[in-house]
Amino acid sequence: MSNIKVGDKVRFLNTTGGGIVRGFKGKDQVLVEDEDGFDIPALIRECVVVGGENEMQVHSSNRPKVQPQPQVQQSAPKPQSKQEEVKIEETAEGERMNIYLAYLPLEPTKVMQQSGYEAYFINDSNYYQFFNYMNRHNNSWVSRYNGLIEPNTKIFLEEFGKEDLNDLERICVQLIAFKKDKPYSLKNSISVELHLDTVKFYKQHCFMENDFFEEDAMVYPIVRNDVPERELLVSAADLKEAMYQKVQEDRRVPQTIVKKKSDSAVLEVDLHITELLDNTNGLSNADMLTYQLDKFHEILGKYANHKGQKIVFIHGKGDGVLRKAIEKELKTRYKQYYYQDASFREYGFGATMVTIK
């Protein structure tokens, strides 16, 4: 062991480790550089040189030597077979596409209060569907979910709360149908826009028994027997051109003179909670007042551009809470509108008439 020289690879006999000899320290020690670059002093008699053609092995000196094993020729690994795809079970009815959206309450007994909701996409057909689920935002669309759904399946889209219902009043679903690895009947790409009555989300009886869930749900058809519910086919440019042509043609036709009436037809809106909701179980007075004011804001927003429109809000006499809340909104948010007590003969003290200015 004494013929160790600088540059030899060595390992330690009485401990793990080893490295390359970088120098000597006295007569009986060497400086060994380990794999981290540190010089470690070690006794020469506790080091053994490792053959140059082999990589250094780091192990305890009392580990038994491994006897060389005869080399056994290994057969080439067999190529793994491609994982078989799940076989799609088709039905005769599934050749016609039936596509639905479904909404379920998270807490069916609390629909009137704080319950949230789940949305599902249902593909009741033999076709794969690439789809995009969107909602209208101002003059554009926002994608809420997009992806691929397999035949005869349903998938979860999202969970949302009552605060999100206003965004879901107008939704749109786009579809492209196809089959994998087999011939099929060509289906047209589809774009369907729907208007959701979000008031129904507050009414428990609107969630009904259905074919797709054990729980009651609101199910909206998108396509039934290959026929879209309401397909968007006319582009904005085509519609604008058609309207322009219609105006040009109408200008050439003799028209009867019609004098504009000074007063627009009066619109009546009954804000009694019993007229707005079928069931008020579980609602506090504050909940009901909030719902009534939301309807009040909705109507004024809808007719904001109808100058001269008169709207009678029937709030009842009662203890005057709703009446005072409406007057507060008119004085703060709708200062530009004129309001007064509605006809006493028709409504008594229980209505306020607003004129859009």
UniProtKB/TrEMBL annotation:
**Residue numbers spanned by region Disordered:** 57-85
Q: Where is the composition biased (Low complexity)?
A: 64-80
Q: Which Gene3D superfamilies match?
A: 3.30.1370.110, Smr-associated-like
User: Record's superkingdom?
Assistant: Bacteria
Domain (Smr): residue spans on this chain: 303-357
For this entry, the protein name equals Smr domain-containing protein
